[in-house]
């Protein structure tokens, strides 16, 4: 009995070590992703400011300009949303609260975090949330 307990404890420590090194990997991944997103957003903004609407020759181009602009805005919204999530995740890593399920407080499986670094729910709670949403949708 005592021996068994010691083994389990040792195992838990190893898991914790692995988890920490995996989270460190995720942190580097997120930092890279953050830099890329910021660069992308800046590029889009520069492109737009260089583009003069008055230079457009006819109405068709005006229409496509507006189409492109709304597409850019939508894209930027999505990037901004992701960027906020990444910043939040990085802050949580610094604070040591990263990888903890917001719903049940359990550790989120590190494999899930590697696949989806901005996840804030464990797979169990995520599935339950999806089930609830499905019921709400009818
Ligand atoms: Zn959970």
Topology at a glance:
Elements: H1 2-50, H2 59-95, H3 110-115, H4 123-137
Helix pairs in contact: 1-2
Bound molecules: zinc ion.
What does this structure look like?
This protein has 138 residues and is an all-alpha fold. It has two domains: 2-98, Four Helix Bundle (Hemerythrin (Met), subunit A), CATH 1.20.120.910; 101-138, no CATH class. Helix content is 78%, strand content 0%. α1 packs antiparallel against α2. The mean pLDDT is 83. The structure holds zinc ion (ZN). Residues 101, 103-104, 106, 121-122, 124-125 line the site of zinc ion. Zinc ion binds at residues 101, 103-104, 106, 121-122, 124-125.
List its traits.
mainly alpha, Four Helix Bundle (Hemerythrin (Met), subunit A), binds zinc ion
Rg estimate, integer Å: 22 Å
* Helix share bin: over 70%
Helix-and-strand structural type: mainly alpha
What's the SSE pattern? HHHH
> What is the domain total for the residues?
2
β-strand percent reads under 5%
Count the strands? 0
Main sheet record? none
CA-to-CA gap between the ends?
A: 51 Å
How many helical elements? 4
- Report the CATH architecture of the largest domain: Up-down Bundle
